[in-house]
Amino acid sequence: MKESPIGVFDSGIGGLTVLKEIMNVLPNENIVYFGDTARVPYGSRSAETVTKYAFQSINFLLEKGVKAIVIACNTATARSLSIVQQKYDIPIVGVIKAGVRTAMELTSSGVVGVIGTEGTVGSRAYELEMKSISSRVQVKGKACPLFVPIVEEGWHDTDVAEIIAHRYLDELREDGIDSLVLGCTHYPLLTDTIQRVVGEAVKIVNPAKETAMDLMDTLQKHKLLNERGAQPSYEYYVSDNPEKFSQVGEKFLNRAIDGIKLVEIQKY
Amino acid sequence: MKESPIGVFDSGIGGLTVLKEIMNVLPNENIVYFGDTARVPYGSRSAETVTKYAFQSINFLLEKGVKAIVIACNTATARSLSIVQQKYDIPIVGVIKAGVRTAMELTSSGVVGVIGTEGTVGSRAYELEMKSISSRVQVKGKACPLFVPIVEEGWHDTDVAEIIAHRYLDELREDGIDSLVLGCTHYPLLTDTIQRVVGEAVKIVNPAKETAMDLMDTLQKHKLLNERGAQPSYEYYVSDNPEKFSQVGEKFLNRAIDGIKLVEIQKY
């Protein structure tokens, strides 16, 4: 069981920013990654649809024999984490708690910004989690639907990205936020642009690293850490367009992605 | 049979720009519209996936008793029209031939631009169709993946839209195009911005109106025109998020959209 892989899934390639941190923090672990590229993006879809997609991704990963699962997608975490945790026996870790904890530690003003997809911001999942830690925190959420396509187009370091970031983020700056959670796994690639737009005084929180730490804690608690020092195996599955996943994904993961396999996810 | 509805489908809301023209040109016709909002966008998906989705949309519309079908989506037309026309007995009209014909009539330089999704431009469907009319035409294709999210965000008349349009279209202008096909049903909302960017000398072709004319000819040829002057009925189905379809769709259609129903399209 300890040598079984960890299952990681996302709506597409964004989850690779989380995968990268998991690979760093847990270098012994075997991993199976699934990107639902046939149905990306999740951000504008209804809660019911995203929850159905999460169930299918988990069923697929269970068939691959995973010992634990990471939902490396903010929208899927916001919409489905508590539901799927009740349904399955193995540990399931989302990306939201990690970002919440870090942002709450970093804020002095008590005014925290959260940016993400329409689904994530609309669900108010970050806000509810933060308020459960401190009822005095003020959470300013802002959906930024153009950030994902900007990153996928490879334009995250351009003037276009900066103008769009101003449109979305100027109001958060005026609201007096002093920390800002990147509540979508695509957004870490926009960190430099976002930092310029919100100013150096605002601390930017990328939940990916903290999520990897959460996963380590969870595996430890369940005595599931892989202690064998062998070269880990990484397997990649997508529901459409493996070529594009490989091309764009390498930017996210900073390493080559080979042998990507197609899966008919709607069968699960 | 003549009073049966026309079936129109698209990956989401873009097809409403085509629907609007059909309503104008054929005011007696009953219409069933299906928008595949659970799986939008089609533009970045593989040919196999888009073709499978087209079959499902057509099977659903046939169950609604339609007498003819319009594929109001350039990507789905490019990827699947010839395949589905072989498979089904009823007339099926796409959006590409209409745009090709108009652009070929309008060009003097013989250099024609075509903009659309990655799927449409990558398929070279417009180019092959144009070359079959005149082998001397030069076709300059350009995928513009950010145009769809810009329109869905309601930013089609902003400085952001104009900067993005310059990034995509300046090279077409330098290539000497004198007509430009809007090869994606979202793009008509960007007409003013695109016209400013490419200059007044370039004629912009919106295939929607010509597609409605093609449909009229086809119905006439098959003796399927509805000659009863009663108030037509319009039905709308989507695979996800009817509320959002209604909100955003009204901008496309310039009329209220009521009674939208959900359909589980993967069952078809």
From TrEMBL, chains A, B:
Judged by the first EC level, this protein's enzyme class is isomerase
Q: In which pathway does it act?
A: Cell wall biogenesis; peptidoglycan biosynthesis
**Which BP terms from GO are recorded?**
cell wall organization; peptidoglycan biosynthetic process; regulation of cell shape
Statement: the UniProt record of this protein carries the keyword Cell wall biogenesis/degradation: yes
Keyword tRNA-binding listed? The answer is no
Binding annotation for substrate: 10-11, 42-43, 74-75, 185-186
Q: Which reactions fall under this protein's catalytic activity? A: L-glutamate = D-glutamate
Q: Which SUPFAM superfamilies match?
A: Aspartate/glutamate racemase (SSF53681)
GO MF annotations for this entry? glutamate racemase activity
Keywords in alphabetical order: Cell shape, Cell wall biogenesis/degradation, Isomerase, Peptidoglycan synthesis
| Family, similarity comment | Belongs to the aspartate/glutamate racemases family.
**Biological role:** Provides the (R)-glutamate required for cell wall biosynthesis.
Mind telling me what this protein is named? Glutamate racemase
Q: Which organism is this protein's natural source? A: Peptoclostridium acidaminophilum DSM 3953
